[in-house]
């Protein structure tokens, strides 16, 4: 049996995905989570073979979760199933050790086959996305990405500084660097462009 943990913040989609995967005779959904922190706790508790996760989730994103799985040596493999056909996301996912990246509009049989392939040691990546992912490099570093994401969500420089344990001056420097690298006029434009490219 392939033991799966599902992480998806939309309850209806999470339930539907679990129900569909349970129809497969060789796949067992051992647990499901509504956010990244809960998913990490369940990974430690159940030690699944494969984590199937969305990207956009509260507390920890799917990409942050994948990075934690890799950094802390958890044995499960990570497959991302998302609506985001953004090359930047795929590139960051691969750098975080993700072995599968599928879009949510793919048929469930394709997901089941992908999980079997991943369990056998293979990798399953949408081919067109794979080509696009390497056509344009992400210019932001991790800290610039964090600061820009929080600022773009409406936090002031002071609030970003408090959350990331930085000085306000350092936050402004990171924002300035990000704006300059993206060639835009302000933090809002920088946030929009970076999100559109899948760099946040």
Structural features, described:
The protein has 200 residues and is α/β, with parallel strands linked by helices. The protein folds into two domains: 2-133, Response regulator (Rossmann fold); 142-197, Winged helix-like DNA-binding domain superfamily/Winged helix DNA-binding domain (Arc Repressor Mutant, subunit A). The chain has ten helices and six strands; from the N terminus they run βαβαβαβαβαβααααα. Helix 4 (87-95) packs across helix 6 (127-133) and helix 7 (142-152) crosses helix 10 (187-197).
What string gives the helices and strands in order? Answer: EHEHEHEHEHEHHHHH
Overall CATH class of the largest domain: Alpha Beta
Query: In DSSP terms, counting alpha (H) and pi (I) runs of 4 or more, how many helices?
Result: 10
Mean pLDDT: 90
Largest β sheet strand count, sense and barrel closure: 6 strands, parallel
CATH topology name of the largest domain, in short, is Rossmann fold
Low-pLDDT regions = none
* CATH architecture heading of the largest domain: 3-Layer(aba) Sandwich
Question: What's the β-strand tally?
Answer: 6
Alpha-carbon distance between the two ends: 35 Å
Percent helix among the residues?
40-55%
CATH superfamily of the largest domain: Response regulator
What structural class do you assign from the helix and strand content?
Answer: alpha/beta
- Assembly state: single chain
Quick one: overall form?
globular
Q: How much strand? A: 5-15%
Strand order of the largest sheet: 2-1-3-4-5-6
* Count of the domains: 2
The Cα radius of gyration reads: 18 Å
